Structure prediction request, 960 residues.
Amino acid sequence: MRLPSIRRSRRVPLSGRPRPPRRRAGRRLRAPGAALLAAALTVAGLAAAGPLVAPATAAPSGATATAGDVTGLTRSGNTFTVTATSGAKARVVVARADIFRLWLSPDGTFTDDPAGSDLAVTTDFGSVPVNHTDAGAYHRISTGSLSIRVYKSPLRFSVYRADDTTPVWQETRPTSWTGGRTTQYLARGADEQFYGTGLRLGEWALRDKNVPIAVDNKWRENDNASPAPFYMSTNGYGVMRNTWAPGSYGFNAPTTLTHDEKRFDAWYFTGDSPKSVLDAYTDVSGKPFMAPMWGFELGNADCFNASNPDYQGDHARPRHQSTPDVVGYAADARAADMPSGWFLPNDGYGCGYTAPLKSTVDALRAKGFQTGLWTSTGLGSIADEVAAAGSRGVKTDVAWIGGGYKYAFDGVQQAVDGIEKNSDARRFVWTVDGWAGTQRNAVVWTGDTHGTWDDMRWHVPAITGAGLSGLNYAAGDIDGIFGGSPQTYTRDLQWKAFTPAFMTMSGWGATNPSAGYHDKQPWRFAEPYLSINRKYLQLKMRLMPYLYTMSRVAHETGVPSTRAMVLEYPDDPVARSNATSGQFMAGDSLLVAPVVSDTAVRDGIHLPAGTWTDYWTGRTYQGPGRLDGYRAPLDTLPLFVKGGGIVPMWPQMNHTGEKPVSTLTYDIHPRGASSFSLYEDDGRTRAHESGAYARQRVDVTAPASGTGTVTVSVGAPTGSYSGKPASRGYEFTLHVASAPTALTVDAAALPRLASKAAYDSAASGWFFDPADRAGILMVKTGTKAEAFTVRATGTTLPAAESLPASAPIDRSGWSLVHADSQETAAENGAAAGAFDGNPATMWHTAWSSPKPAPLPHEIQIDLGARHTVDGLGHLPRQDGGVNGRIGGYEIYLSDTTADWGPPVASGTFADTAAATTVALTPKTGRYLRLRALTEAGGRGPWTSAAEITLTGRPVPVNTA
Prediction:
């Protein structure tokens, strides 16, 4: 007998288009017609959100216009209104010393404000002193942090620091508009880099990239799964366009910033670091929400109601016939000792769920799982699903909110309201098609992707880069939804375990593509994959207090838990670029370098300044530098702890609340002075919003190197929340190279124990194990309720190994300055082919003209930043041709192309196709000049080169 089912997940059909089999949440649909949209709005219960807009395409017809010259400026409080000869007006509204709004209205009115307060939710920061002066060529509006210039002829804007001499951003020409598009043009600094634009599926350093700020639901590399009209610059500012209109940002020279509307409206934020800019941006657009603790645990999405006639997948799936079948999978997870925290048991088109829902929710909760629901139509039953049945999460689908922009934004808000107005629970919503402000409401994820190494490669910078738009919770299905293998699943799960929220899907690819691959739950794999999956899920559960605290930092400051290297190291020239797009910081202490290819060796790990300890071996390195040849078999994720790192850890458990946190462990890598402020609350309700939480500060002092005293000062927890322990035990694992001569707690000696077994069974004491990860000092203090201090006297810190003095210089930021000759007519012999990373392309001097240019020839390259260069690699043409091989050469390096000085090397290359390396006298500069004095074989006045590479070290940005 078939149980009754609720058709909550029935997809609205598209007229004239057959339903494909096995569709899932997030599966791409084409834009619905107006009638269907109206019906969907009715089903969803959303107020009319205005028409959905297509992504920016060709420029609309009509003449381009600008505001003209300034005719006047008036002031009302901190609002300055500028009039212009065309009838256009502009407003500058100073909200805070570091925040202002710039609004340009072509028709001179300020009534067209489609975003209203949706994106800028907080704009009143109290009074702020603002001065205005007429400086002749421009009006100056100044605060304690910045100086805004309003140029008069023609109307243009620029922003300087408070000194009125240091530029932040400058318009190179007036903002222009057509009938339906407005573009701002900004000067681009010589070293300026850009970040942001939402959940962009690819690299996060955006200089020289053109980024669509538009919804397309394709979910492939360089698309944007959740665009945000926000970016920030290394010049120390960020900007959010206050609009729902799609657009496109070209981070070129000049930078062009376009949206499809006849208006310009933007909020600007200035700061002294990327972190401070994010803080200001999220002060206005809203801080990231605080997810429930169970939301940090692994989620599992699948259809367990396959017998539903409306389901578009396999109706015969075993153990998936009706919603209560999900409880069997929950039992499997627990039997496999596999941490996991929640299920979406109705994920699939037409799946729905079997009524009554409450019994399934209760049965899952009894096994430590929460329940969420997926929807492709709307939330008509959410009040009952949350209040009566006890569901606690929502995942939206493009079949409902796929038009994006305000429509999707309002759909997410409805899901948030459905949870929070019908329970004391926190919001936990997953969505695609987010926008600026989505960080305060939802997890964004990358849509329908594939279980391939290549998809994994671009997922690392995509999820990391989302944090540069304030999106603390960004995710992608583990191993994608299509295809996959046990190997790709295991590698993908490893690194995603260090992000706040992650989920695995049932998968719509081939059935069992290889042995041990059954569905996409981590406990349904054969060995060794099963044990490796367990290892990383267990580690994430132990790291819960650390990762939860990092997300509280995001909730308070806008700085995400998953951090691009530039956030922690903004002055590191390597960290600023995509040379580090394949790694990230998990919080402030853990560096994660995922393996995203079928290999057991990881190259190109950048370790910034300071010491870095291999989490698995205890081997310590001295940065900055590049680490190559790191041994990373399938069970090893390259993971490093920053010197000074303090990482709180729970006892091992499979879900939040399975065990009491009767002992809290602090895993510490002492090095100099460091601190950590642990955050705790009830992990479930919204009581923290009213101050129901506690903090505990831990301070560590240690020598910078060598032997000395390590002191750990643990403060008493301050604050209170439901379930806060009155006291608890503490354990410390100190990564040191030798046993201390004395160890005390509050000046009282703690006994040294003779063995690890004795330590494990003791209530207090210490034990040093020199064989454990190059040395671990383990300390148990016993139960404590107040502040206390642990002091280890006469211990030695691990010695740090130096990294190689030289490394390959990343070429992603290189650009051509000059080539005296290049062939672009008869073939692609453009000079940029000599440094594009493709040996099949080359620079070849012009030969199709009647009279080729004579030798010598030269190429000049901008390295994108200053480097100390000590070697040049030269690969001659590789296409079988021989003419143009460089013979005699000179190599120059300089900070200016106006004065090269003497060459750093000169010589003669052999007449072969083999690669050659030239050792250079180390010199610091930004520009490279390679002069070809002769042709190696004397065949003619030609020059060619397939690849030019350099070795050396980048120079820190703040070094003159």
Notes: Residues 405-420 form the longest helix (16 residues). The longest strand covers residues 857-875. Residues 43 and 378 are 6 Å apart (CA to CA). Confidence is low (pLDDT under 50) at residues 1-61.
